[in-house]
Design brief:
Elements (H helix, E strand, L loop, with lengths): L7 H12 L9 H10 L8 H23 L1 H22 L14 H7 L7 H18 L8 H5 L10 E4 L4 E5 L3 H9 L12 E7 L4 E5 L2 H11 L4 H11 L9 H14 L2 E5 L10
Antiparallel strand pairs: 1-5, 2-3, 3-4
Helix pairs in contact: 3-4, 4-6, 5-6, 9-10
Length: 282
Amino acid sequence: MTDATTPLAEIQGFMGAALLRAHAIEEDAAETSKAVLIVAPGVRLSPVQQLEIYREQFWLRHIDALKEDFVTIHHLLGEDGFRAACESYVAACPPQSFTLRDLGDRFADFIRRNVPWSEDDLLFDCARLEWAFVEAFDAPDAPPLDPRSIAEAPEDAWGSAKVVLHPSVQLVPLFHPAHLFRAEVRDGMNPDRPASAPSHVVVYRGADKLMYVAIEPLAFDLLQLLACGMPLAPACERVAAEAHVADASALEPKIGEWFQAWASYGWVTRVDFDLTSPRPSE
């Protein structure tokens, strides 16, 4: 018989903790005894059996959701290893959203910070890359770049111009070519672990599907600065300085090529020019 005097907050706390248990409730004598006091017995099932159904369903749904979003992590760890990682993750980072879509938003950070997963850079690469695809898929849309908006801009306005990227653009620096590894895994192949080789990948939503492109490091560094809102001229100067290029203007031909490519991919949605600042007279 249930105890009708148990405070609601205590009941809620018990139920929440019971669902988050990675192992059967009946394995814990104290939890079993408490379940009998809180959960009413059914016609066919005991209080513990009823609660166990919800606990099992909680884990089935949450692990399946993580498996769908992090296929490469499942491939690398195997079924048992992946379940162990998911159980530890959910225990450390309980869901904060009503939707399972957000369940993996802290998975990459969890992997980076916790042993034994933190000892494998490829796991961290794959977790960040997989989540980038989730973010790109759900990102808001934005109109494509209007060529007239940049063709009509004064040449001396480009230095202070701010390049606005499409919301779906995700910039992912990698320790390995995890983008190629991911593609093979998701195509049903059984690829070997890739060797370590720094890669700079942009994930974005194309016209018909999610896309990715690996770009050269300098272009990636510039994109990162532009994505943070830095105007074009100081962004180029910083990239040149960090690459030990004495004259930033030497990068201009490459930047022109990069910009054309970015616009063709749909990464650039607009360029904001500051036309109020005084410019040198001719």
